[in-house]
Design goal:
This protein is an alpha/beta fold. It contains 5 helices and 9 strands, in the order ββαββββαβαβαβα. The strands form 2 sheets. Strands 1, 2, 5, 6, 7, 8 and 9 form a 7-stranded mixed β-sheet that branches. A two-stranded antiparallel ribbon has the order 3-4. Helix 1 crosses helix 5. It is globular. About 0% of the residues have low confidence. Belongs to the GPN-loop GTPase family. Pfam families: ATP_bind_1. Keywords: GTP-binding, Hydrolase, Nucleotide-binding. This is ATP/GTP-binding protein.
């Protein structure tokens, strides 16, 4: 979840690197979000969609999509001096879910991207993080032409636990994506602190 390092050359100490997952349904914008916010060239494991996958990949609503993540996306963003986030984008199709357990190890929290046109596609990710008690925020990717829904409506539709943040975003926009990540770090920090206090109380 957290790694620390010191750099004697410039006097910095205890720099934090936090692991964050970016999850959600097929074609919701996970690769786009990681690429938009990453300050390094993102690592991508995308492959062209094949005819063989047409029977298992539901492309309704994302007909323009030609590639899919088959392992993970990886990027890095510095939130402030001494605090960096390592972003791991998960594959969206259920046949790749076996990778999630590996990717989730040591994660501070997760962003669940949602598309209101296919809201049911993010239920597996919500269930996954709820059952493993990994803090997460739901980020509604506001696609052009999609009907706009407020955060309370999305929260009710997904039957989220009370207090789970829902934010609206544009996965293509760096500042918008950064705000989502900041909201997650703040929320996850409160959740982990509360659990620590409960354990010692």
């Amino acid at each position: 979840m957290v790694s620390e390092h010191s750099d004697a050359a410039d006097g910095e100490s205890a720099a934090l690197a936090l692991k964050i997952l970016v999850a959600g349904g097929f074609g919701v914008g996970k690769t786009t979000l990681v690429g938009a916010v990453s300050e390094i060239r993102p690592l991508r494991t995308e492959e062209l969609l094949s005819e063989a996958g047409q029977s298992v990949d539901d492309t309704d609503g994302v007909d323009h999509k030609t590639t899919t993540t088959v392992a993970m996306d990886f990027g890095r963003i510095t939130i402030r001096s001494g605090l960096s986030l390592y972003l791991f984008g998960t594959p969206g199709q259920d046949r790749f879910w076996f990778l999630w357990d590996e990717l989730a190890q040591g994660a501070l929290g997760a962003v669940v991207l949602a598309d209101t046109r296919r809201l049911e596609d993010c239920f597996p990710a919500v269930d996954y993080f709820e059952h493993r008690r990994i803090p997460f925020v739901v980020a509604v990717n506001c696609f052009a032409g999609a009907r706009q829904h407020g955060a309370p409506d999305v929260s009710r539709a997904l039957d989220l636990d009370g207090g789970t943040p829902v934010v609206l975003c544009d996965a293509r926009d760096r500042d918008s994506g950064k705000e989502v990540l900041i909201r997650l770090v703040e929320y996850a920090g409160r959740m982990h602190t509360a659990r620590l206090l409960d354990s010692v109380g």
